[in-house]
Write a structure and sequence with these properties.
By secondary structure, the protein is an alpha/beta fold. The protein contains eight helices and eleven strands.
Amino acid sequence: MKLLIAEDDPRLLKTLVHIFEGERYSVDGVADGESAYDYAMSGEYDGFVFDIMMPGRDGISLLRAIREKGITAPALFLTARAEVSDRIDGLDAGADDYLPKPFSTGELLARVRAMLRRRDSFSPDIISAYGMTLNRGTYEIACAGKSRKLSAREFQIAEMMMASPGVIIPADKFITHIWGWDAPVDTSVIWVHISNFRKKTEEIGAPVRIRFVRGVGYLMEEAK
C-alpha cells in the first residue's frame, strides 16, 4: 500500500512517515501543497493524507486539482481547523474523511484502514501470532477455542505487538500510537495496560510471553 502525506510541520511529517512505515506502508512525505501535487501526478498512490493549511497550495485546493485530473485515490484531511464549514469544504473537494488535530495514532491508522477498505484494498481484520488471533472488528483475542474481549487501549497494544512478534517496541512508540504524537502520558500507564493484556493472554492459554527489556521497551515472544 502506497500513501502520499503532505504536512507542513516538519516534526509531525517525520512522525507520520515513521508511523505509516512502521505499519508496512510505502510512504512519500512532502511539506507543501505544490510538491504534493507533483508527487500525486507522477506516482500511483492508494491513498492521500493531507494537512489543510499548507504553504503554496492548501489541502482543499490541492485535492480539487487532483480530482480534476481524474485521480480517485481516497483522501483523509488532517487539520487543526475543526469548524463544520471547513469539514464541508473538505468533503466537497473530494475527501473521504476528516481528522482534527490533536489525534491519537491509533485513531489515525483506523481511519486510514477504513478509508482504504472502501477501495477494496485493506489490512486483514484478523492478525495472528504464536497461535493467537486478534480480531480487529470485535477487539477479541483467541487461542485454542478460548477468547477474551480487550479494552480499546489493550486492543491497540495487542495490535502493535502482534503485528511485530519478536520485536522490541519502545514505550514512547506505544504512547505515540495510542495517545498521540505529543501526548503527556507517563510510561507507567503503558505498563498497566500491558499487564492487563498479559493477564488475558494467560486466561486463554496463549503460548506467549510479554516482558520488559530494561532501557529498551516491551517484547512479545513465544513462551519456552
